[in-house]
Amino acid sequence: MLPTAFIHSLKGIPGFDAEAFMAAHQQTQGITSIRFNPFKKPYLKEIPFSSLLQAPVPWATDAWYLTERPSFTLDPLLHAGAYYVQEASSMFIEAILNQTIPNPTNEVVLDISAAPGGKTTLLSAYFKHGIVVANEIIKSRAAILSENVMKWGTDNIIVTNNEPRHFEKLSHFFDVILLDAPCSGSGLFRKDKNAVEEWSVENVAACSLRQQKISKEIIGCLKPGGLFIYSTCSYSVEEDENITDYLCNEYGLESVRVQIQPEWGIVEVQSSLNAAWGYRFFPDKVKGEGFFVAVFKKPNVIEGVFQNWLEAHIAIPSAKQTAPIEAMFQIPDFYQFFLQEDSFKIISKVYWRTLLMVSKHLYIKRAGISLGSLKGKDFIPSHELALSLLQLPSVNQIELHLNEALAYLRKQPIELNGNMGWNAVSYCGLRLGWVKVLPNRVNNYYPSEWRILKD
Ligand SMILES: C[S@@+](CC[C@H](N)C(=O)[O-])C[C@H]1O[C@@H](n2cnc3c(N)ncnc32)[C@H](O)[C@@H]1O
């Protein structure tokens, strides 16, 4: 049962049809959609859920509605990062980017509220020659973000665990900022019954203030001429159109209109003060959950100078240290090696300076691809390396059957014939992780904290 005050608060919003809206909330069968990982799909020997793929999500690339929700946990390809289970409305960010930055080059992108990482993975794929700083304020959620980023496997994501105000020093640094704001969550009422119970007029007002505060703290990081995308999964005007007015009034952002197809069912709205464009997703009109998004351009004025970038708390290992690792994994020379804690990592040389600058001001949870660390004389490859997109021609790869893959993901002992030492294991052609073959046993190196607990 939806709160009366909530329904009352939506009356008068263009596209809101109380009866149809409430009927859509009675539907028990949820909508499930996935977006394939464009970098891993070419290696897949079998398309997951091929019999369940119902129809493509019209505003996204290689994203599909499924006829039912399978057990994703028990699909090894979820753990290999073959796809991301993402709510369809959220995928509209790709349609926005296609229209506003049709030829992405080497953009520096900030996803300020990024966990669990649905939009981060989308941004990482869209800006494949750029870099995405994916930030999450809550530590436990930053860990989930990090896990999902590792599974996605790209080398162009830096995960940070900071408050938005910590970004203030990165003046005019980003070409694109996505603020997928924390909100009252009414758009997810169909999926999350707790959100219904927690909804209140007071919380909507508190969320609106928080959205303004986050905007204020990060707006200076956007380059003149840069793109600002604001989204929520709330239907409340206070969190949607009113924030778009705030962004135009306070920071002079210019609203950008996006083309939509009538058959998509998305409702175009305008804010009351600045007539800023916004896009509303109502569940009775769209095959997806509730969502709001608006797009802005920062005026193109030239101001400010970049600070001196070149001091950072990241170490560069010596060539002597990296030579055996380079030889072990045949690392292409467009990568820069760096050491974070005791882990050897790489990032594209193009983004080395970006990383230095970010690391000067923010807590970096992960960046680039971790290759592993030295334990005595042994080099222990990181799990992240197995999940990355790096070709590892010198590594022996053992293809597992479904039962073996699930045993591996449960971190159970498995029997395999591999080469002595480190071997990657894969399922349907995608790497799942590492095993170490010893004379009398095989050690399973799947991370304990990620293991599947479900039978
Ligand atoms: C809507 S969710 C983000 C979903 C994510 N963008 C995705 O696509 O998977 C909003 C996020 O904002 C974070 N958050 C909460 N309070 C915040 C604050 N004060 N500043 C920034 N982010 C905050 C939440 O922890 C949550 O992860």
TrEMBL record:
Residues 17-299 form the SAM-dependent MTase RsmB/NOP-type domain. Belongs to the class I-like SAM-binding methyltransferase superfamily. RsmB/NOP family. GO terms for biological process: RNA methylation. Keywords: Cytoplasm, Methyltransferase, RNA-binding, S-adenosyl-L-methionine, Transferase. One of its GO terms (molecular function) is RNA methyltransferase activity. S-adenosyl-L-methionine binds at residues 113-119, 136, 180. This is NOL1/NOP2/sun family putative RNA methylase. InterPro entries: Methyltr_RsmF_N (IPR031341), MeTrfase_RsmB-F_NOP2_cat (IPR049560), MeTrfase_RsmB-F_NOP2_dom (IPR001678), Nol1_Nop2_Fmu_2 (IPR027391), RCMT (IPR023267), SAM-dependent_MTases_sf (IPR029063). It comes from the Bacteria. The active site is at residue 233.
